[in-house]
UniProtKB/TrEMBL annotation:
This is Transport permease protein. Pfam families: ABC2_membrane. Coiled coil: none annotated. PROSITE patterns: ABC_TM2.
Amino acid sequence: MERERKTRFSGGKLGYLWAYITPVVWIALIVALFWVLQRTPPIHVRAEIFIATGILPYLIFRQTVTSLSRTLAASRYMRYLRPVSNNDIMLATMLLEVLHMLTSAALIFGGVTLLFGDPPPESVQGVVFSLALAWGIGCGVGRFVAAAGLLSDAFSRAVPLILRPLFWLSGIFYTATDLSKEVQDILWYSPFLHITELVRESYFLGYTSPIASVWYPIAVAAGFFLASVPLEMFATRRRIMRGRL
């Protein structure tokens, strides 16, 4: 984990602070867009906290996937140090991301509460659990992507393009109650909308989502994670046979 932290944030004066600057900048830009367009959140809360509860789960998922997708390539020489394995390298990345998740959530939600006078979360445990679901899906998808990347470099490079549309399916700008029944039925299959709705249910007193489910994101995360295990074993065995590992 220490090696991962130092290599990822090496260079530049800000270094490790970039892990926390990035989500703050994203939130600030979208809030500024709300102001310019004179748009108000669909529920009776400030734009700052509404955007924060939407974008933080997405960023946790995206950053976890992105980190895992490149960690095996970045730490490829570590695998020559037995008994260091691919699983050890990916686990270190996952644990580093969960620490970032907890710290970022505390800084952002705490900062919004102190600066703008917004009430704290109605259920802190519910918010943390919902964010953990975003991290869990990131771990499952990221591990699958990392394993697939051992077979195809092109697949790893295509991941950012695949993740980009998910930004619009995560409920950052809207809630499920704003959508028609037909659109709700379609977006029900987006686990990220479920997670955003769960975060807002736990954060805002009185908000109840019409679609939020805990078990669907868990099933998606478990499905990707389980699928990644045989894929990683096959990819590793193939690389050994070709003399690349």
